[in-house]
Specification:
The chain is an alpha+beta fold and 238 residues long. The protein has helices spanning 17-28, 62-69, 92-95, 117-128, 154-169, 197-200, 205-221, and strands at residues 53-59, 75-83, 103-110, 136-137, 140-141, 147-150, 180-181, 187-189. It has a single domain (17-221), classed as Peptide methionine sulphoxide reductase MsrA (Peptide Methionine Sulfoxide Reductase, Chain A), CATH 3.30.1060. It is built from seven helices and eight strands, in the order αβαβαβαβββαββαα.
């Protein structure tokens, strides 16, 4: 997220009025990504005996990506964090420099019997972000906001690669897909004040303009998978 909107490390999640004023230009000069229902993967993951599986996705600010997947049926948890860089630099005040290799990411734990890996990727490409934006999403600029998939198995990597090829061949988007597939990257949990940020702050200016429409698009385009009550990392009373 643009630093004009995000609190610094150790700062509570409430934004002061001055931050809204500083962010006005970013909002007026940027356009929220539009939803686009793309076809599901032609080949999906085989359902085995596992009751839980994880994957890590990056599509711009983790506030919105986390918020979307917290509303998906079959998702057991969605945790904001950093992937692609080293443990020593997995901190918000370092990743904002854009030189750590990290992307703001979300680790999604899901029940593959209720929602498939391929369906999560379809949601990722349809409503969670715009996969044609290279190293940015909306007003947020830098490699830390890149579109990336961090597969947790060889099968996930193959499905993601084939799916991108499928969408590219079908010209599902008006520009080339730039989503990177980055296997083998460790995931590091983000600071507590970043967790459940959309759920805690639905009326915050950035969230209301850029991220709440993604949740609405999830409900509109994937009604069978939309859950009104999100699965949260913490509690709204904390």
């Amino acid at each position: 997220m643009n630093s004009a909107f995000k609190p610094g490390a150790g700062v509570v999640t409430l934004l002061v009025a001055g931050a809204f004023a500083a962010a006005s230009f970013a909002i007026s000069a940027s356009t929220a990504e539009e939803a686009r229902l793309v076809p599901p993967p032609a080949v999906d993951e085989k359902i085995g005996g596992s009751t839980a599986e994880t994957t890590v996705l990056a599509g711009g600010c983790f506030w919105g990506v986390q918020g979307v997947f917290q509303h998906v049926e079959g998702v057991e948890s969605a945790v904001s964090g950093y992937a692609g860089g080293a443990a020593a630099t997995a901190h918000y005040n370092m990743t904002t420099r854009g030189d750590t290799g990290h992307a703001e990411s979300v680790r999604i734990t899901f029940d593959p019997k209720r929602v498939s890996y391929g369906k999560l990727l379809q949601i990722f490409f349809s409503v969670a972000h715009d996969p044609t934006e290279l190293n940015y999403q909306g007003p947020d600029r830098g490699t830390q906001y890149r579109s990336a998939i961090f597969p947790q198995s060889g099968e996930q990597a193959r499905i993601a690669k084939d799916y991108i090829a499928q969408l590219s061949a079908a010209h599902a988007f008006d520009a080339p897909i730039v989503t990177a597939i980055e296997p083998g990257a460790a995931f590091y949990r983000a600071e507590d004040y970043h967790q459940d940020y959309l759920a805690h702050n639905p009326d915050q200016r950035y969230i209301a303009y850029y991220d709440m429409p993604k949740v609405k698009n999830l409900e509109r385009l994937f009604p069978d998978l939309y859950r009104a009550k999100p699965v949260l990392v913490g509690s709204l009373t904390n």
